[in-house]
Design the sequence.
């Protein structure tokens, strides 16, 4: 190998010209230390694997390999037997359902194995909450699944990725993390997938759970849970992906003053099976748009009312007559989470009443 190529491989984990998405290692714990938990890290890219361009603010997400990320936190090798797989190397703005299916199937396959105790997924922060929620609804294991990202690229001064990855290993290896649904470890907090959302485009403290707060916090290599994730334990909405290759089309329409009809009619004309309306306040809808959505619902499009407001619940039949219009109220799910649940719900039923039940018990 040429000197420059060798140098690039040391820094990024990849060879020049190598197809990053094709670099996969089978999870095997052949040289494992007995007594340590076995954890598989699935890498998808993101800022946690980002590299600055010319040392400035600009950077490219998904540049570093999972081996390079793990190499920055050598301490985790003493906490778990860790193997890794490079599932993708993307900025999470490019996350799609094909990759969701691939991740979900791999996670279910790994967690069904006796020799795998937990899975960590490194992910861009932009759509991390949607992937976490999708996996929460389709992963059928009580073993920990932990998503982790970073706000600063790996090459930045004060990069937060190594500390977050260390925390993710702490969470994935803690017996207290079992049966809590899919978890997110970011900046010293651990969140449940249902409520966590990105609240800052730039700050290291980028994630919050606006309705219920974090499940716990991390200090000095330990995770302390302050409450249980009651919803994950009681949940009736869980889905199997067997036989599915894609998800029904569901769009989000953003509400605002003087909102036009066009986005709603465009989605109906494009044969979307569901519309999530990110309404104002308690999921309220401009009267013109309300008529278009009610017409869509009469045609069989499932309309879910959510809210563009960061916290609180979109309540059924309060300011709007959901029962009369045939709408579904999203409760505490934000629009992007409501979209994920509606896509999965539509694989089971088109009936708005049954879908309301899935929202009420998700
Ligand atoms: C991304 O979501 O891939 C880019 C932003 C980030 O990871 O923070």
Sequence:
């Amino acid at each position: 190998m040429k000197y420059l190529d060798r140098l690039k491989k040391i820094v990024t984990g990849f060879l020049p010209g190598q197809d990053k998405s094709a670099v996969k290692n089978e999870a095997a714990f052949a040289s494992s230390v007995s007594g340590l938990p076995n954890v598989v890290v699935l890498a998808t890219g993101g800022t946690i694997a980002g590299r600055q361009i010319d040392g400035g603010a600009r950077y490219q997400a998904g540049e570093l390999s999972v081996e390079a990320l793990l190499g920055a936190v050598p301490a985790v090798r003493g906490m778990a037997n860790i193997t890794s797989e490079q599932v993708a190397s993307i900025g999470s703005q490019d996350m799609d359902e094909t990759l969701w299916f691939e991740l979900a199937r791999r996670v279910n396959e790994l967690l069904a194995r006796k020799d795998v105790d937990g899975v960590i997924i490194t992910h861009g922060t932009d759509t991390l909450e949607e992937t976490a929620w999708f996996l929460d609804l389709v992963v059928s294991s009580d073993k920990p699944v932990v998503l982790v990202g970073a706000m600063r690229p790996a090459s930045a001064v004060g990069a937060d990725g190594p500390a977050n990855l260390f925390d993710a290993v702490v969470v994935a290896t803690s017996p207290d993390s079992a049966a809590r649904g899919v978890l997110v470890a970011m900046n010293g907090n651990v969140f449940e997938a249902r409520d966590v959302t990105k609240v800052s485009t730039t700050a290291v403290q980028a994630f919050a759970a606006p309705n219920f707060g974090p499940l716990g916090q991390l200090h000095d290599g330990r995770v302390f849970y302050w409450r249980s994730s009651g919803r994950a334990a009681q949940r009736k909405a869980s889905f199997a992906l067997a036989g599915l290759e894609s998800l029904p089309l569901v769009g989000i329409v953003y509400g605002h003053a003087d909102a036009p009809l066009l986005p709603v009619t465009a989605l109906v004309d494009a044969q979307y099976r569901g519309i999530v309306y990110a309404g104002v306040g308690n999921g309220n809808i401009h009267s013109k748009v309300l008529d278009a959505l009610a017409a869509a619902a009469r045609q069989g499009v499932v309309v879910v009312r959510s809210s563009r407001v960061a916290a609180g619940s979109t309540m059924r039949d309060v300011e709007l007559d959901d029962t009369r219009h045939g709408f579904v109220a999203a409760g505490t799910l934000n629009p992007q989470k409501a979209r994920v649940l509606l896509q999965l719900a539509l694989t089971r039923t088109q009936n708005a009443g049954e879908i309301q039940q899935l929202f009420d018990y998700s």
DSSP finds eleven helices and 16 strands in the chain. The longest helix spans residues 97-111.
